[in-house]
# Entry
Amino acid sequence: MAIRPFNTENPVEKSIAGALYSRRFPHAVILEGASPEERMSLAKNIAAALVCTNADAPCGVCPNCKKASADSHADILLYSVEDKPKAFKVDIVREIRSKAYIVPNEAERKVFILENSHTMGVEGQNAILKILEEPPAYVNFILLCSSKSGFLPTVLSRSVVYNLGQTSSSEDDSLPREKILDAAKGVALSVTELNDFETVKAAAVFEKDAKLLRESLPVIQEIFAASLRIKYNAEDENSEFGTLPSVLAQKLSRRSLLELIEATDLLMNSIKLNANHNLTVTALCTRLRKAI
Ligand SMILES: [Zn+2]
# Structure
């Protein structure tokens, strides 16, 4: 990755460059927001600046900068995991800790770049906290994440957070609309079946997918609302749902539809209150069946 001078037109980079220049760069920084590529590019630039031997770091021409640029500097250690919950395992954190206590090879500093560090669980964060509290003088940590919200307050209090701007849409990880529609329509239709088990079957898609449940519930509610509008002879403008609202309007009473809408409200609320996911899926089945 090419090493470049900091862009001092950008307030965040200007502040980073200032801290580096005054040799008061924090031991731990969190770079949040923007795109994964932008975060990594900035992290590598900071790392190069930290190992660079020239005053206008990163100079791009000293041996340290050249190695940093070729991703082959022995004192810049990159740990990269997938953006999945708990992907940053506590074992990796323990390895980082033990390496951090070994003095740098060729530079004056040793820099750890931790990509997708927000995927650390509580155990991992507590493990990293031990070294953030008393880091060896030569160590820097650069933690990369889409949002700092996953970090414990104790970790945040030991770090300086640089927000690089809104998370880019390439990382917008909302689910495909089709998947949400399929799940929502399946559950909505299941309430017209006589057997309770049909709803359990339809809701099985949510069992291991809290996000799908969270994003489908408002759609399920919207389907029932569309059916209710048909009951009141109002136009149904939502073509996304096809004939489903009409089918439901034929089979369900106004009262049932109202209760179904209420039930989805309660479920959305319990998700907001961080209710246990499996219990919420079970509650979805029982509440919807009770409403009809
Ligand atoms: Zn240099």
Summary: The mean pLDDT is 91.
